[in-house]
Design a protein that fits this description.
alpha/beta; TIM Barrel; four-stranded parallel β-sheet; about 45% helix; globular; disordered C terminus
């Protein structure tokens, strides 16, 4: 486990001031990073022959990275994001340098910290650094990479950002709920390991289809992520503000925690010179002002295609204003990868399908013992068609490798079932195996507590 000196008083004070600002007024973040870097024509040598790996510039060309932060602070934003969007195991693994996650994360945070401190000193107003944690290039739900590998890589990412002086961590542009959970829990492990208490923000990417890349609805995302202890939730990237309204409307009605939004400058239009983002600065400022007034956003900014001019106009419109009051009505429930199921049903009961339980269904048990996984999945789908609200998944059977069976079936159910899963086992390793395959919010059943072994310690062992 990584270790570090106790966070400094300055670090604690900055984090506390950021929390206070987010709770009382609209805070403005920066805009696009990658296009600003590329506009300065870094050489192949600057990239250490790893063309496109922007995080390398934190080491080789800190002056370029610094200039981007300066451009945004100069127009009055409150905070900038670090140049660490790809500083994770999956993305750096594409360049065969996954071991440099922490190094490049820390370097990126230090550059932003230096610039923020300079502007704090020159303006007399606190400026903050958001540690960017991008999604990577592999989706654990689809089996591209193990959950634990993703989680541990994000922990290294977060540890570097914290050590470099970030004031908050933002898990952003997330596309797979299982990847999102891995990032959030990796960040939480880093905060615990380093004795830090920075705000942890989470920003989701929704496609023009109205769902995340793998089909997750906004309700499933909120149900799965809010209980993990994040401080803020919202949207960024993928679309412009026009396509985000319905998702923000859902969040303002149901989210207990504050909201953020950092849209692209509209939907990209492909031209012979590449992608063009059509939304001008006034259009972005109009949209963000409306979102603040209608949905009570606490943090706004921009993503792809946005420039310092876009953010200058956003600052003029909303920085320091008080967001609209919200009266959220949370809906406690469980979630699959795709949808949320409230615990309170109009039918007055919650129906849990039990025919995917090796102890309760001979047909399911025999299919499992014979490795007829498709038949097991079909039994799950039968219960969906018959009106179940959740599916009980139990693989416990004497003489079987429960972890292997759970990995196989939970991995299949994650994408084959639209319903939340009830993981049913008395074995902690089996429950852990299931949780590491499910992107939604599962229900745990049948855990027997031993003497002196209470719920908190048992839950820690599972997660």
């Amino acid at each position: 486990m990584a270790s570090s000196p106790t966070p400094s008083a300055d670090s604690r004070n900055r984090a506390a001031a950021l929390r206070e600002a987010l709770a009382t007024r609209v805070v403005v973040a920066d805009g696009a990073m990658g296009t600003m870097l590329q506009a300065q024509d870094p050489t192949l040598a600057d990239f250490e022959n790893l063309e496109g790996c922007n995080e390398i510039l934190n080491i080789t060309r800190p002056d370029i990275v610094r200039s981007v932060h300066e451009a945004y602070f100069a127009v009055g934003v409150d905070c900038v994001e670090t140049n660490t969007f790809g500083a994770n195991t999956a993305a750096l693994g594409e360049y065969d340098i996954p071991e440099r996650v922490r190094e490049l994360s820390e370097a990126g945070a230090r550059i932003a910290r230096e610039v923020a401190d300079e502007y704090t000193a020159s303006t007399g107003e606190q400026r903050w650094v958001l540690g960017s944690m991008g999604p990577g290039t592999k989706l654990p739900t689809l089996g591209h990479i193990p959950y634990a590998t993703v989680r541990d890589g994000f922990q290294a990412n977060a540890e570097g950002l914290i050590a470099g002086g970030a004031d908050a961590l933002i898990v952003e542009t997330t596309q797979d709920l299982l990847q999102t959970k891995a990032a959030v829990l990796g960040a939480r492990r880093a905060l615990d390991a380093l004795g830090s208490d920075l705000p942890l923000l989470c920003s989701l990417a929704f496609e023009t289809t109205g769902t995340m890349l793998l089909g997750s609805e906004i309700g499933a995302a909120l149900t799965a992520l809010e209980p993990l202890g994040i401080d803020m939730i919202g949207l960024n990237c993928s679309t412009g503000p026009a396509e985000m309204s319905e998702h923000l409307r859902y969040l303002t009605r149901h989210s207990r925690i504050p909201l953020l939004c950092m849209p692209n400058a509209g939907l990209p239009v492909l031209t012979k010179d590449g992608a063009h983002f059509p939304l001008d600065a006034e259009g972005l400022a109009d949209a963000q002002e409306t979102f603040v007034q209608e949905y009570g956003l606490s943090l706004v900014g921009g993503c792809c295609g946005t420039t310092p001019e876009h953010l200058r106009q956003v600052v003029e419109r909303v920085r320091g204003t008080v967001p609209a009051a919200r009266d959220p009505r949370p809906e406690p429930g469980a979630a699959s990868l795709y949808q949320s199921i409230p615990f309170r049903q109009d039918t007055a009961y919650l129906a849990i399908g039990e025919r995917t339980n090796a102890n309760g269904s001979k047909k399911f048990r025999e299919a499992m013992l014979e490795g007829r996984w498709d038949d097991c999945v079909e039994m799950a789908r039968d219960q969906i068609r018959e009106g179940a609200h959740m599916l009980d998944l139990c693989v416990d059977y004497v003489g079987r490798d429960g972890v292997a069976d759970m990995e196989e079936l939970a991995g299949r159910f994650a994408t084959a079932s639209t319903l939340p899963i009830v993981l049913d086992s008395t074995e902690l390793p089996v429950l852990r195996a299931g949780l590491e395959k499910l992107g939604g919010r599962a229900v745990l059943n049948s855990v027997n507590y031993e003497d002196g072994d209470g719920p908190e310690s048992r839950f820690a062992k599972v997660t």
